[in-house]
Design brief:
The complex is a heterodimer of chains A (267) and B (273). Helices cover 75% and strands 0% of the residues of chain A. Chain A has 267 residues and is mainly α. In chain A, helix 6 runs antiparallel to helix 9. Chain B has 273 residues and is mostly helical. Chain B has one domain. The chains are: A mainly alpha (267), B mainly alpha (273). The interface between A and B is medium-sized, with 27 and 29 residues.
């Protein structure tokens, strides 16, 4: 980063809220301008619902499986996965801004840098809500059960927003350190590892071997439990709070990663 | 296209020279691939990772009635991993052709007395050799984790040949795209299609345990025909009719994709002259 920056606190007294909203809008407009951006947001989760439910429908015959409807298991997983990619997309649109020099101009502007972190969060929340709306409608139309009703949808939304925000922190932390397209594969690998080494496809009791040990301590396992509970039964506090704690812990770690990355970039 | 191109009718090259040129270009293709581990290594590691995760998370699925008799899910997944790796790796052959076009190397080839067919043959031979390498690596690594080929050494050879022919299928298809578009990005955009073709097949789970329209599509997917034939050699034993089915389907697809690539090459040559 070679651009001159404005470090003085006095010059950065402008409110960060409108700037954050503008940055979020800018990120969201890219979805309309770059059709390929819709793929990870909607097309991939829809494909995962079809592919995983179709391929692995017999897994529900395992005695450890909590439902006999594979869609009720896979739809929330696909939505959480799509939400993670919503955060990934937000981070990647920051890479484009860096490569075009727009981010340098933002750093030069007399606004609080908090907006640079909050803007992508807002964009991630909107992106994952789009994913949830479309994929949930698709899943319910195919036959997924939702005995938890509106509370189940609310739990799923909280989990999706949490995962999107965590993934945004991961994406920003990485692109602040590797500010070009090379960050893309690293971002994806991180998300894929977290997803596959959890209870994405199979409940932890049905797993065997090394993945089972990792899935037990993977925070995403608790977040998926939070997301899925409305599809498997009623929403309960006992299956809600571990997910909330997992989201909070992941946010602290990955947003510290993002904030220190931004500080490093500015320096 | 402003490159100087020799008239194809004026490029009179004997068979021996053409073979020699194809060999040199195949060698270039292989060396170029080896020098870029970031291109081929994910194609090896990702299928291994998926297989390792699936074996651990879905290991109990082998006890579901209707699942073929296997010692471990890893036995079942070996042909799927080879197929996945070759499909992903074969795309890089097409990407490299597109890169040659983008960097101007292709134009320099056209300006030199090189057999036009050798350009394609060289690239596809390179992809095929990489396919064999991938199959051998998977058999060795999975073998270290206890996978034994029920069909013995002959089954291993069959899997290697299967991987080589499959590499021609995807390599030819990717080369066709590269020659038509001249864009490495366009070739890479095919990646999701290979992913979909692989997923809606018996690669990761037996079609007998699928249901509805998904099963109907999966049983009609050529990837299922190829993978099932190859899998038979691993989990049941050597069966030439199953092997012939697998290789036959791959050979037909390879012929079609090579014909497509050849037509694309001729079209590009016409455009350039």
């Amino acid at each position: 980063m070679t651009a001159a920056t404005v470090p003085g606190r006095a010059e950065r007294s402008t409110s960060w809220v409108p700037v954050a909203i503008m940055l979020a809008q800018r990120s969201l407009v890219s979805i309309l301008r770059i059709p390929a951006a819709v793929v990870p947001l909607v097309a991939m989760p829809v494909f995962f619902v079809i592919a995983f439910s179709g391929s692995f429908s017999s897994l529900t015959k395992l005695p450890q499986f909590p439902t006999d409807n594979i869609l009720s298991w896979m739809v929330p997983f696909a939505i959480v996965q799509g939400s993670a990619f919503a955060g990934f997309g937000t981070g990647f649109s920051t890479v484009r801004d860096m490569e075009t020099g727009f981010y340098d101009r933002l750093l030069l502007a007399p606004g609080s840098r908090l907006a640079l972190l909050v803007g992508p969060i807002l964009a991630g929340v909107v992106r994952c809500t789009i994913t949830l709306t479309i994929v949930l409608s698709f899943g319910l139309a195919l036959g997924a059960d939702l005995p938890g009703g509106l509370m189940g949808v609310a739990a799923l939304w909280v989990a999706s927003v949490g995962v999107a925000t965590v993934a945004t922190g991961w994406a920003l932390g990485l692109v602040y350190r590797v500010p070009d397209q090379r960050a893309g594969p690293m971002l994806q690998i991180g998300i894929f590892f977290a997803m596959f080494l959890s209870t994405g496809n199979v409940p932890v009791d049905a797993q065997t071997g090394w993945v089972r040990q990792i899935a037990r301590v993977n925070p995403l396992t608790n977040i998926l439990e939070l997301a899925r509970q409305g599809f498997l039964g009623d929403v309960r506090w006992s299956t809600t709070w571990p997910g909330l704690v997992a989201i909070a812990g992941s946010l602290v770690v990955l947003w510290t990663f993002a904030a220190t990355g931004l500080r490093r970039l500015v320096r | 296209m402003s490159a100087v191109v020799l008239d194809p009718h004026e490029v009179h090259i004997g068979t021996r020279e053409a073979v020699e040129q194809a060999r040199a270009l195949a060698r270039r293709s292989i060396v170029g691939t080896i020098r870029q581990p970031q291109v081929w290594l994910p194609g090896l590691l990702f299928p291994m990772f998926i297989a390792a995760v699936n074996t651990s998370t879905m290991g109990r699925s082998t006890s579901i009635p209707g699942f073929p008799e296997v010692d471990s899910l890893l036995d079942f997944l070996l042909p799927a991993s080879i197929t996945q790796s070759v499909l992903f790796g074969g795309l890089s052959a097409g990407s490299d052709t597109a890169t040659d076009i983008q960097t101007g190397f292709f134009d320099r080839l056209l300006a030199s007395p090189v057999s036009r067919t050798s350009i394609l043959v060289g690239r596809l031979t390179g992809a095929s050799v990489m396919g064999a390498f991938q199959a051998i690596v998977f058999m060795a690594v999975y073998g270290a984790f206890g996978v034994r080929l029920a069909g013995g050494v002959a089954a291993g050879l069959l899997l290697v040949v299967y991987a080589m022919v499959l590499a021609l299928v995807i390599g030819g298809f990717a080369a066709m795209l590269a020659l038509r578009t001249g864009s490495a990005e366009a070739v890479q955009n095919v990646f999701p299609l290979t992913f979909i073709a692989l997923f809606i097949s018996s690669a990761f789970f037996p079609t007998e345990l699928m249901s509805g329209i998904y099963r109907s599509i999966a049983t009609r997917n050529p990837v299922t025909w190829m993978v099932d034939g190859a899998r038979h050699q691993v989990i049941v034993g050597l069966d030439w009719s199953e092997g012939a089915r697998s290789l036959g389907v791959a050979a037909v697809l390879a012929t079609l994709s090579i014909l497509g690539a050849n037509a694309a090459l001729r079209a590009r040559l016409r455009q350039a002259s």
